Amino acid sequence: MAHRETPYPGTCRERHLDRAQVLARRVRLDPGAETFDDLRMGAQGQEPAAQCGDVLVRDRHGDWTYQWCVVVDDARHQVDVVIRGEDLLDSTGRQIALARLIGLPASPSFLHHPLVLRSDGLKLSKATQDTGLREMRAAGVSPQDVLGMAAHASGLVDQPTSVSAADLAHLVAERAPAARGPNG
After folding, report:
1. What is the domain extent for residue 61?
2. Among residues of the chain, what percentage have pLDDT more than 90?
C-alpha cells in the first residue's frame, strides 16, 4: 500500500541555524534500501531517503514525532513483533534506519494487517468517534474476542474466534523468524 509523499528537500540542512531558536530536528538518512520481511505481506524493500528525505524526529513545536517515538518506545519495551495497519507500511524502513542510527542491535518483526473499514470505506478512527476498545468492552466483548478479531484481520486465523494472549503470541511466533538483524 504505497503512498506518494513529497520528500523533504533539505532546505535548512546547511543553513547553520541557531539550535536554541529552532525546535524542529531532522535526521539525515543516507541513500540506500532497507529490507525486511513482513509476516503477512512478505519481503519488502524501501528507500527511506528517497521516500521522505531527512526524517523529522521533532516538530516545530518541540514535540517528538511518531517516527521517533515508536522506535524509542519499542526498544524501551523490548517489543519484538509490531502489528499495525498496512497504512503504516511505508514508515517501516525509516524506523529501521532510525533504530540502526541510534545503535539498536535489531529491529522487531513486523506484521501489517488490512485496515478495518467503515461501511463508507473510510478506516475506523477514534478521531471520528468510531467504536473503540472501551465501547467494545462496555458492550460485553471479551478481551479474547478482541484478540480473535485482530488475529483474523492479521491473517493469523481463518475466522474470528476467541483467542487468548498466549495463543496469539504462539500464532505470531510461528510466523516470526527466530532472530532478526537490523535490516530484517
Report:
1. 25-175
2. 48
